[in-house]
Amino acid sequence: MSAYEFFLGCDSSKDKLNFALADAQGQILYECEVPNQLARIRAKLKELLRIQQVPVEKVLLCVESTGVYNNWLLRAVSELEVATWVVHPHKITKTLEPLRGKSDDLDARRIAQFARRYADQARLYQQPKPEIRSLKRLLRLRQKLVKDRTRYKNRLKAAKNFDGLELEVQVYQSIIETLDEKIKEVEKQMRLIIRSNQRLKKRIKLLRTIPGVGFVSACTLLLFTNDFEDFDDPRKFACHAGAAPFPYASGKYARAHTTSNRAQKFIKGILSAAAKAASKSNSRLGAYFRRKMEEGKPESLVLNNLRNKIIHIAFAIIRTEKPYDDNHIPEAFAA
């Protein structure tokens, strides 16, 4: 039985938010549109709760996960202490009956109805600490700069190999050097934030004892688990990070277990780099990789297993607050 009596659906976009308030019977009580600005959102939510006489502890707000477009909304609901559920859009689309036509108003109503029907499954949003939020933005900024640098390195290589202009080569080299400097600046700022927080500093140091896990991958594990508060089970995070294989079978047709495309590809890419580094190490993880390759296992399968092992070891290290020890790694992780 849900503890909520009112369900507020929100359809978010770059410029505006659309709200639809439903009661426990599914009747739409109130609809409105508000600019995507912190002050306007905060004021509208206060007005909505006051006019509709809705106790804040009895309302569940549900919004699709749309990245940065949700930032002001999530800041406002955290200040007002409104219970909020951030849901992947695919889950709402696949759960409710398909409808003809589409509009922001209609989407807000559908999200409200989704929240009403599945309120007992809600995972409430927790506002990350300021340091976690800042580090996450910096980590994503670093990844964007790295992608840009890779793009210009490829252009530089093409210019050198296929009779490019001298000026063209010089421009690409200059841009790459600038990007190198900016990446170092971002990493420096990240290190400063971590050094100023003893808890984060200790946990990053512990995570970096895992073979293959460097500064960036340690930050990724820490930040995308919200300092290991959003996930209590490494298997759930492995699913979130695209390291958990799933069966695909129907009738007589069956294929090998594969990971889902709905995973967080950003996390998966970082952990893939960590797994490749671990495969070259002299640790038991490296020995596992070489043994499985000698057995004829596909490299992609073995690397995915390493991703899984790194995730499980990371959760164990944070739980026990003890660094990685190659001599005391559980047999399940080394098998």
Summarize this structure as a short list of keywords or feature phrases:
single chain, alpha/beta, Nucleotidyltransferase, domain 5, five-stranded mixed sheet, 7 strands, globular
What's this entry about, in short?
The protein is α/β, with parallel strands linked by helices. 55% of the residues lie in helices and 14% in strands. The protein has three domains: 6-121, Ribonuclease H-like superfamily/Ribonuclease H (Nucleotidyltransferase, domain 5, 2-Layer Sandwich); 130-196; 215-334, no CATH class.
What does this structure look like?
This protein is α/β, with parallel strands linked by helices and 335 residues long. The protein has three domains: 6-121, Ribonuclease H-like superfamily/Ribonuclease H (Nucleotidyltransferase, domain 5); 130-196; 215-334, no CATH class. Helix content is 55%, strand content 14%. The protein is built from 13 helices and seven strands. Helix 8 (215-223) packs across helix 10 (265-279) and helix 9 packs across helix 12 (299-320). The longest helix is centred in the middle third of the chain and has 32 residues, at 130-161. The model has no long low-confidence stretch (mean pLDDT 90).
Structural class: alpha/beta
Counting structural domains, the number is 3
Distance between the termini: 43 Å
What is the N-to-C succession of helices and strands? EEEHEHEHHHHHHHEEHHHH
Low-confidence blocks of residues: none
What does the largest sheet look like? 5 strands, mixed
* Shape descriptor: globular
Q: What portion of residues belong to β-strands?
A: 5-15%
What is the spatial order of strands in the main beta sheet? 3-2-1-4-5
The tally of beta strands, per DSSP, is 7
Give the integer mean of the pLDDT values: 90
Q: Report helical residue fraction.
A: 55-70%
Query: What is the rounded Rg?
Result: 24 Å
Total count of helical runs of at least 4 residues: 13
